């Protein structure tokens, strides 16, 4: 008996040891050391996160700074998973009927110049963002309209008081541009200092910036997340053209480019490098729109706008365009994989999203005839950039032609395109787009409001504004979802103010030795690099 | 020789001024707004008030003749103003790039001299021979090649 038990115990022990050993081997252990080199295909006007809007600044400068909260770096694809960066513990739940957020800060955090980081610094940073003095720019001030005050009861506590509860506050707070600056720097040097100077508390310290060439950072040994960063440093190499970025990765001069490549570039890299390349893909928090000029005939007629959206076969377009362009998912006003987004069944109830394109196009032709413009002729205004504007624009024109419309395309270089779209508004129908960083549906859907600063459709739609105000002030997720469906139906279907073509799709092929980085649904997110390591073994 | 040098140096001033005036008007007359592109070029939402603040900061909200006067005055007082793209002083932007630009300029001039002078001499000495034709073709090909 004892022999049997002994044998059984030994077998159990060996089996357990084998299982644990295999698990340990499968779970990747971050390796310390090395310098990550990556390419950045764009220019950053300045280093100030509070005024800039370009990913080119984020990719280069974000690793030098900390935020109060951020998207979970281990789960960046979840649009509602936020974690503390400078704050301690979990992201706090609001109190006082959803109007008060109290954050406790981690202790012992220092800026790169050695000075301690306290709640006064966080307050000073958010005062600059939310309540900037006159003449001081703040690109995302409007995200924080609900904030009525910021107070600091003690050196490690900061309290945000809202005028009304809103689900958009926490995502706004996690925006990767909300760098925490030293109050001492702001007091001593003013509000322009951070445009050309860097003193953060992030995982890396600034070393050098050779404009037009590269920017380098070195590991911060006093970083508040112990054990990180894993890298010794990084080098962000400036790359003027996409072909250069692709060749840099192919030739192992760089491990990655964090913005994204079109499908062909991915396929070429995989074909050339095989398992030396890892590809991560994700829906992208950018959407390509068609904006009819609601102010001019015949686009002031709802039937004509509905005909435009009915003519587009989004479901087939998704299948074929995703092979050649950085677009893929059919969606409504909310980022497709967010819990507030419409399901496929809900989308199919909207004009332009039906499963039967023949029926949709027949309806479109009927509406055009009723509106007195059968065989409508117009000019489609597009931006002179291939991905995805010209590709998707050309496809949209083809879709309209199949609906009996005659469409010319006018392609303009970017500055002229913006001038026509945003200032002169002398277009019939124009391509437009809406890109955001943190997925914040309640803020992001304002694009469809006629009153929005980034809406170029030239219309007033009070019923839509009323629905939005209810969404903004609703603290209940189920109610928000119901209201957003009403909003979506009104904006895209009943009035067809703007039309969504397809949501963008992010493709990031990178060298397989770069580990830890997880693709996020935005090229602005998850770029702090403190969880990235290199395994060149 | 000295007279010639002085003359050429004096010609430098109107040439530079002419080029600067041309660039001034081209930047302002061509459609497009640098503040729009800077703040809203990537598709992220940009508050129109912020775009207007940027334009005010760069003086782009002023009438054209006011901007032109400020521009000329800047030349007189050696105040080159701010970069429209970065908002930093132009002198700062130049200083960031100056040493590398100087290095490239010197190196390219040296390489050009090292190649051009000997080949030029050879071509002159062996005028209208095969060597001369080869050197001439090489020179023309070099000039015709786009400088990527």
How would you describe this structure to a colleague?
- The complex is a heterodimer of chains A (537) and B (148).
- Chain A is α/β, with parallel strands linked by helices.
- In chain A, 33% of the residues lie in helices and 20% in strands.
- Chain A folds into two domains: 35-255 and 513-534, D-Maltodextrin-Binding Protein, domain 2 (3-Layer(aba) Sandwich); 283-505, Dipeptide-binding Protein, Domain 3 (Dipeptide-binding Protein, domain 3, Roll).
- Chain A has 17 helices and 17 strands.
- In chain A, the strands form five sheets. Chain A has a five-stranded mixed β-sheet with strand order 7-8-9-1-10, with helices on both faces. Chain A has a five-stranded mixed β-sheet with strand order 13-12-14-11-15.
- In chain A, helix 9 (302-310) packs antiparallel against helix 12 and helix 16 (462-473) packs antiparallel against helix 17 (477-494).
- The model of chain A is unreliable at 1-26 (pLDDT under 50).
- The model of chain B has no long low-confidence stretch (mean pLDDT 87).
- Chain B contains six helices and no strands.
- By secondary structure, chain B is mainly alpha-helical.
- Chain B has helices spanning 2-29, 34-40, 48-57, 64-76, 90-125, 130-144.
- Chain A binds chain B through residues 43, 45-46, 51, 53-55, 135, 137-142, 192, 195-196, 210-213, 286, 414-416, 418-420, 422-423, 433-437, 446-447, 453-454, 524, and chain B through 30-33, 36-50, 53-54, 56-57, 85-88, 92-93, 96-97, 100.
